[in-house]
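Dear support,

We are seeing what looks like truncated structure output for some complexes. This example has two components. We would appreciate it if you could run it in full and send us the complete token output so we can diff it against ours.
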Amino acid sequence: MRKLKYHVAMSLDGFIAREDDSVDDFPANLSPEHVTDYLYSLASEYDTVLMGRGTYEFGLNVGVTDPYPSFETYVFSRSLQESPDPRVHLVREDVVGFVRELKTRPGKQTDMSRVIRAAQMGLPKDIYLAGGGLLATTLLDAGLIDEVIIKVNPVLFGSGKALVPRLARKADLELLSTKVYRNGVVLLQYAVKR
Amino acid sequence: MRKLKYHVAMSLDGFIAREDDSVDDFPANLSPEHVTDYLYSLASEYDTVLMGRGTYEFGLNVGVTDPYPSFETYVFSRSLQESPDPRVHLVREDVVGFVRELKTRPGKQTDMSRVIRAAQMGLPKDIYLAGGGLLATTLLDAGLIDEVIIKVNPVLFGSGKALVPRLARKADLELLSTKVYRNGVVLLQYAVKR
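Here is the complete output from our reference environment:
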């Protein structure tokens, strides 16, 4: 089964955005070193992206109706009536059932075979959960998130949108990898323990 | 001037304790590798410890009136009437003024000279801010915290006592060092930018 990975930038004190959903205060977003890594990771790891309404509307407010044009895109909302873009699928109910089924669908094959002949069989691409926190909480409580990948930015917000607000119970993690960027961002990759 | 360092364990999502101030869910607290490092750091870096009432009372509730017997100890509270221990100093008002003055006092010398002759002059020991978040917020907003040292534990709480609740404005940090422990704890050391 494909993995669902919650992959977001965060302030050191656990916020993935300011109260208004802006993320301008994350230096990670401005560093070429970081952006290169992030785009490579997106292109090689995922073929599908999930996001909550707040995360989607942050792009929509600046005119972006299809933020990830190379991915199958699903926006979860009870209040939106229809999708503003034919490529963007709106899921209005049964979030958990929908994502559980989505994980069983075969992912696209990675194109690593262009680089490494031994990898010609490819690996199924995974599902990228881009935010927000409420959607992540629902999916984590339902046992559907496999990895949590956090870009810890060197900043304290003190308030904002939490990583996983109102989680029903604590979730134990296993540290898989770390990477330190020159701009002070620390990438932490965890598996969610079952 | 001596440094004030906010040095705490935290869940990945930014909580330094559960709602009841307990910290039992931090695996860091159970790992010999980690405890050794932590005790060495305490002994070599600090001679003074500051804490809020909630943090102090968590120990008090299990009968510990003097949690750091080798340090000068200050507890900040408006509601406590007197200190339960003659070694523990209660500060009831003007937190900011008190800490500002405390930082100007000379710290004890480190005893590194026993190990390295060139360090015979020693270095002044710093001030350890052990929690909680409200005291840290007050002191950070007043520009008095020099470093933030976080032991990121591989766990998501979803709620609890925040690292710096209700900060007046965001605080930019500079990453100074990182260390990864075998138990999945990641130590992140930052300087607070002025």
